[in-house]
Amino acid sequence: MSAGTTTVPGPALSTPGRYRDAGPTARRVVAAEWARTTGLRSTAVLALAAAGCSGVLTALFAGSAAGDPGFDPTRHLTEAAPLTAVLLLVLGVRLGTADFRTGAFRTTYVAVPRRLLVLAAQVVVTAALAGLVAVAAVGAAVVGVLPAGASRGMLPDLLGDGMPRELAASAVHLVAMALLGLGVGALVRRAVPALVAVLGAVLVAPLLLGVAADLASDPLAESREPAGQVEEQPLALTPVDAGARLAEAAAGSATEPGDLLGPAGVLAAWVVLPLVGAAVRLRRSDLC
């Protein structure tokens, strides 16, 4: 080395630890999934449709009953929840199949080789988004009963008779339905078959169970209690009926833990089983 020359060490060689944390961490994957999810036009459309459906249907239900002598506006706050839940279900399916529908899963799993981390991030994002939509749907339901209540000089009492618990349980039901759709969508990976499966479980299965119970009953029998029990027990295992039972149990003033654990367990099973199936398929099968 000559006397008049100096060497400057390269920054990349002198600080090798600067880029150690540049990998796909859980926080970064969740942030990426949130940006992708909220960037989809279908997400905004379905979210607005769910809130609007809740408000409009609640207004119709409450308005049709406003002339009854025992009218109580709070009784109609959760009547639109089953139909609103269908839109949350469709939203979950759309989010679960979005990457596979567009082919973006190839880029996603190259950037994040830990496939289960991506699925976990999708669960977190879907639950958070569905929670926001559920709060908006509950708020729209409250607004929906105001015209019918005003016609009778009544306002809904949102703080009495277990109403906060009932509204919270209704919101939990909506979130669970979105996660159910996500799990089935991530498991099936095709939007149309996944929608057919979840809508069949939510809408068609309860009708078939009701028809089966009617066919199993004896029309000449004096009492139809056995037929009612035949219909009630299978219906309790459907996600929509479980959500309604959860809200009903939460609204009770003397609620027992078992009254809540039953429908909550049914909802949890509907959510967990498809997600576990999707996780197993991610780990053990090729992405196609």
From TrEMBL:
Keywords: Membrane, Transmembrane, Transmembrane helix
Region (Disordered): 1-22
Transmembrane regions listed in the UniProt entry: 44-65, 77-95, 116-147, 167-188, 195-213, 260-280
Domain of life: Bacteria
Presence of keyword Membrane: yes
This protein's record includes keyword Transcription: no
Record-given protein name: ABC-2 type transport system permease protein
